[in-house]
Structure formats: structure tokens, C-alpha cells
Amino acid sequence: MYGDSPVSFLGVLTGILSLGLLLVVARRNKNKRKLPPVPVMTWPLVGNLPSVPLNPRKNLKQWHKEHGDLFSLYFGRTLVVVVCGYNRLKEILVEKGTAYLDRPVMYANEVIGMGHTGLAFSSGPLWHETRSASVSILRELGLGRNVLSEKIHEDIEFLLQRLAEFQGEATNMWHYVHLSTANIICSMVIGKRFNYEDDRFKDVVERIGELSAYANDMAALNYLSALTYLPGDFLKTGRLRRAVEGLKDFAEFCCNNGGRDGVEDTSNENKNFISLFRRKQEEKRVNGIDGLLDDQNLCKTVMDLLGSGTETTSATIAWCVLYLLHHPRVQVKVHEEIDMELGHDRLPCMGDKLRLPYLQAVIKETQRLASVSPFSMMRATSEDVDLGGYLIPKGTTVLPNLDSVMHDPEIWGPDADHFRPERFLNNDTTVMNREEFIPFSMGRRMCPGIGMAQIQVFLFLASMLQRFKFVPPKGEELPTLKEKLGFIAVPTPYKVCCVDRLTRHD
Ligand code: HEM
């Protein structure tokens, strides 16, 4: 029919094409309406990145206030859905958690060619298998039990001695705490404690610090890979690459030596993370199971444990001492509680925890207010999901805004931005467990190091406060409470005088 008249054929064709175009545009707009609102101007190529500062905590708080629990941001062309508020976070991390278990791809892992392996940044079956092996190994190593606290005591004794040597002179206490927490993780992972003067050990601790610090500078690279070609190193990519490679070399060295050439072998019947992982590999091999726990996966998992486990714990301890400098009356109460319940004849152990509710409340308040992992770790949707009436496509990056819960005045009261440990106490005698207290996130992918972190933070702080009074350097202003946000939120480095309470008691 159309063959008879070219004019009418062209007309119909144009009509069809226009209709098609209209449908595409309509569908695009409809898709846009299906996503949570974007709070700021979106630019071509860079998206909303110009409006997201290196430390976006204040901005996210403001956008949460203005737009509610869900809003979208474009990091370059990548859609990132920010999820705020306890109920929404519980929905994505726990109730409908299966669809939000994946991680988006991260530049830092890509540069060393280990993008999809290990525990912290993997997704799908590889993550499932690595997570279940790692959690069962960590359990076997005695996390959450007293076995671990014995190992920790050795490092605490070293730390106390080191701090006492300064005889009350101002020092960067956090640096020594960092070395000790790193050594504890090494002891668990490799079955080997390092001499604190060991160059390899000192180097890897420095690398971990750098990795965490540069994480924000180079966050844009995850979304604008063209930036890697810029001359110079203003995004610190070179330093980041060196830091990741340094950590990788160290992990490879550990996996290959497995603690056998250790300065001091602390493993019980050669029980450490690496040897138990190898045992699982062997079990699979013997049973003819084609598993995913290969050597590269082991090496990356070791990197993840070292990277995630040291800075978070030591920063929490550093935050606590900093808050105590700002709240001397709280420090007096902690000292009184320790003196009354423990005395000074032995180091605190985990069995003392129940007897020190005020200290426990101080630790919880520190974790709440400092919120060292304010945005948890990014997740990605593994299927299309309906979230609050919006249709979020498969593969979307999701940012769980833990900060929005930890500082929510509706949960913690109008003084949510202030340090007040009493909010965690029932009648001054027992500690209140609030489900909204989520520094380790929630659900199946929550922090697997929670047991170890809680033991370390409690034992370190109880022992440090049993021994020292922390005061600011004479004649100087109190150190700032301003944070530095990298991979996590750490205090601005500060100096503190550790005044030995033992010499006073003698
Ligand atoms: C106060 C100390 C710590 C805090 C606040 C903390 C917080 C977190 C948070 C918020 C996440 C993200 C969880 C999620 O995606 O939902 C995480 C993941 C992780 N943490 Fe921790 N963490 C701490 C200590 C530790 C320690 C001591 C270890 C090692 C033993 C560790 C190992 C890990 C690993 C491997 C992951 C990734 C888990 C996965 O993706 O399956 N963390 N942590």
C-alpha cells in the first residue's frame, strides 16, 4: 500500500520515528521520576561531584533534612543512591539485605589487578565463599573469647611501657596505639608478632595509614577514570598506588611465609588466619570441590583484614582520649570507676567489662559521636529494587549513611551532637543497648571484625586509663575536635601528656 505513494510513505516513516523518539524521551523522564531526587545541580560528565566536597558530612546532613531519607547523586555518570535514617538502613541492610550485598568496583583495587577478589570489595559467589570461610576462621581463632585478650595483653604492656617512657612529656600517643593494634592483627592473621623496630612492619603500618588518608583524594577516580591521565600527582594517585602495592607485597610475603620465619611465633599449634585458610583450600581440593578460595583470594583477604582492622580500632581509641581531654570530669569518673572496681595490681581483662559500665558508656558515646565509618562501605544492588516507591536499577551504587542514624536527634535527643556518655546508662549502673547504635553497620555484610574491635578498644582504653591521666600539653590550647575524613574519619593528629598514675600512687 505505501509503495504507491512515496510522500505518504515518508510521512508515515517520520511519524513512526517521531513517536519512537517521543516514547524514548517519555521513558527516560519516567525513569528519572522513578529515582530519588537529586538535591543539587547536575553537570555534564562530572554530575554532582562539584557540589560534593572532600568531607561531605555536613552536605549529606543538609540534603537529608531537605529531601528525606533517600536522595540521588551522580558521581560522574554513576548514580549513587544515598540512604539515610534507621528504618531505611534496616530495610536495605537487613530486611531486604540480599539485594544490596554487592560492592561497586573501586579504583584502588583495580590498579593492582585485584578488583574482584578478597573479602571487603568482592561480590556474588566469591564474596559468599570468602565471607563464610573468613567468619568461621575468625571464630576458630577465638574472636569474642578470652584467647584473644591474652595476646592483646602483650601488646598493651608494650604500649604502656612506651608511653610511660615519655614521663608526662607531650607525645603522639595515637602513633603507638596504631603500631600495637596493627601488631595484634598481624598476630592473628600471620601468627607472628613483629618487633616494633622491624622496618617491614613499620613500613606496612605507614602504608595502611596512607591508604586510608588518600582514599578521599582519589575517590573521584572511581567515577572519572580520565583523571588518571592528568599530569602531576594532585589526586595523590601515585602515592595511593604505592601504598596499595606496599600492602600487597607485605600480604604476599606473609602468605608465602605463613609466620614460619616470624620474629616471634605467637600461633597456637600454627593456628592463624593464613594457615586455617590454607586448610580450607586443602579440604576443598581433597573433596574435589572447585572452590574460589585460591591464593590470590587469600592474599587480598589478608590485605583487607590488615587494612580494615588497624586504623578503625586505633582511631576509635584516639577519639576517646581526645574527648576525655575535652571533658575532664568524664575522665575523673572513669578513673574513679577503675580505681574502685579494679585497682592497680593487674591489667584489666574482658571479665571486668560488666564491672565498668561507665567506661563502656564512654566507649559507646565515642563510637557514636566520632562515627569513624560515617558512610559504611558502598554497596551495589544485585537486582532491580523498589525502595520507598522508587525503582532503583540493578547495579546502582548505594551509600549507607550511618552518620544520619548516629547523630539523629530523634533517636539520641536534642544534644545528639554533644559528648554525653550518660545517654548509654540505665540509672548509672547498667549499659543500655540501643539497636540504633550501628558503628559496625548491620545485616549479613556488617563488619566481621566487630568481636575483635570491641575487645581491643575495651582492653586498650581500660589499661591506658588505669595507668595514665591524659592532659593537654601545658600552655597549649585543647587539640581540635575537627576530623580528617579519608576512608574513615580520624582525629586531626594531636599531642597529649600521659601522666603516670602509678608513680603518683606509690
Ligand atoms: C572500631 C573498629 C571498626 C569499625 C567501626 C568497623 C566498621 C566497619 C563497617 C561500617 C564496615 C562496612 C560493613 C558493611 O558494608 O555493611 C566494615 C567492614 C569490614 N570490616 Fe570493620 N570495623 C572495625 C574494625 C574491624 C576489624 C578489627 C577488622 C578485622 C579483624 C575489620 C574487618 C572488616 C572487613 C574485612 C570488612 C569488610 C567485610 C565484607 O565486606 O564482607 N573491621 N567495618
From TrEMBL:
One of its GO terms (molecular function) is iron ion binding. Keywords: Heme, Iron, Membrane, Metal-binding, Monooxygenase, Oxidoreductase, Transmembrane, Transmembrane helix. Its cofactor is heme. InterPro entries: Cyt_P450 (IPR001128), Cyt_P450_CS (IPR017972), Cyt_P450_E_grp-I (IPR002401), Cyt_P450_sf (IPR036396), Cytochrome_P450_fam2 (IPR050182). GO terms for biological process: organic acid metabolic process; xenobiotic metabolic process. One of its GO terms (cellular component) is cytoplasm. The keyword Transport does not apply. The chain crosses the membrane at residues 6-26. It comes from the Eukaryota. Pfam families: p450. Heme binds at residue 447. Belongs to the cytochrome P450 family. This is Cytochrome P450 2U1. It comes from Elysia marginata.
